[in-house]
Specification:
The structure is a single chain. This protein has 12 helices and 11 strands. The chain has 368 residues and is of the alpha/beta class. A 6-stranded mixed sheet has the order 3-2-1-4-6-5, sandwiched between helices. The chain has a 5-stranded mixed sheet with strand order 9-8-7-10-11, sandwiched between helices. Helix 5 packs across helix 12 and helix 9 packs across helix 10.
Length: 368
Amino acid sequence: MAGCKVFTINPGSTSTKIALFDNGEKVFSANVAHDAGVLAQYKTLKDQLVYRRETIMKLLEENNVDLTGIDACVGRGGGLIAMEGGVYEIDDLVIDHSINCANGVVHPASMGPSLAKEFADKYGAKSFVVNPPDVDELQDVARVTGIKGIYRNVHLHSLNLKETAIRHSKSIGKKYEECNYVVCHIGGGISISAHKEGKMIDGYDIVGGEGPMAPTRCGSIAVSDVIKYLKDHDISDLKALCTKTGGFVNHIGISDAIELNERAAKGDKYAEMIWDAMIYQIEKAIGSMAAVLKGKIDGILLGGGMVHNKDLVARITDDCGWIAPVSAYPGEFEMEAMASGAERVLSGEEKVKKYTGKNIFQGFDFDK
């Protein structure tokens, strides 16, 4: 669809990002910070919707941005039951499950579908969710654990991971569905994933504590150590270590990778060790995903905010470049990725999907 206009909305824990794209070009973007005291007044995500909507409308008015004639609105999404990757139409079920966090993972991004649908309805546009964090395309063998009835699932930066793979594929003149990649998102959270012919067949449950240590996340630890930890701590403390108080925060008391590097450069051996350990764990995870793909890899792709760090990219390239060529895509492409998904559907390049609300994994036949 030539000249399509797409409006994207990405609610975060302390801010709301919006962007308007016209024919693939970002013509307006803004990121407004929210006062923690204001947000604390709202007990649930649903309670925040009016405040977030009014904030967006004020931003548009202040910047003289008119959404008349937009073709689609895309909301970040989350809280949905595990699904296949792709672009999904926002309907009543998507709104109900996202805003009520049907999968038990509470994150402000879950307000995205509700906000996108409101603006889409107002301007007569379509509304979509693109590759939300709830994407689950694991191959069967990746689901099995050593405990009967407990199966692995994943929570990853699906939007950025898939967008990075799609962009790289285009840059080498191929389709995402024709390639195999190890794709990494290295930012406040760290996702390492194996992509085979357009499907994310393995990765880590970074919300549940799997994978490498990250600035605010503990990463994988032995079950025996978890049991030991719980002798002196509450279960809520352990849950917080998975997403908020682990990693750099637990060791050094900061979550900023730049500050950690500055401390290391000034001779702080503890900071240096934590930085080295994180990279070491990332490289181990890359090797693991390379084995999943049986060594048939078109590239190792690095995305996310920490990829701006040249030391990190150089070290991963030196240590893992023998597996496959390493390509860096610094920063996050969430807004661009949401817009691109809508554009692919509007142009007919990709078919829109309907959310069923049923877990894509229904167990194995031998479970029944």
